[in-house]
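Work through this protein:
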Amino acid sequence: MKEISKADLVDGLFNAAIPCIEKFIEEHNNETFFGFAIETLAEEGYFHLCASSSESFQSTVDEYLLSGETLEFIMGEDIKWNNQEWAYFDLNYNCNIWNKAWEPMLDIINSHKNNISQLNNQESTRAQQKFSNLFKEAGEEVYMKIINSRILDKMKQSSDFRSFFFEHHDAF
């Protein structure tokens, strides 16, 4: 079974992400952002670029207030900083630039996943874990490349702006 290299994953992810982020920032230049995150889920080949602005988060605040939650709770770690509560949870998946650039690598990943499924249980488990670790490492590296590219500096940012990376299974 041909291995997927971390370098190929990093290049594929980064080269798809940067133009998508640029387009997103351009389309949302009137918003003030408090967060940017990347969430990966290796077994699905997911690489979610996420962002949230004060403006886009207001509907979430309103919804939680109506359900009886306190503003203190809503603005805490569980809601405000949970990227799955953000309006722009997977901003790249609504971006044609991303879809075109990422599709060739996703085809390779899907082929790799198919090959893994043909292995016996023990080999399959080992191969899936190896790929999950590789995908997470590639995601972390891409996150750092995005940060170091300073592209996020083009976003209007709140004083409490944060960026972070995580693998889905590490948080949920």
User: Anything to note?
Assistant: The helical segments are 6-27, 54-66, 71-74, 96-117, 121-149, 168-171.
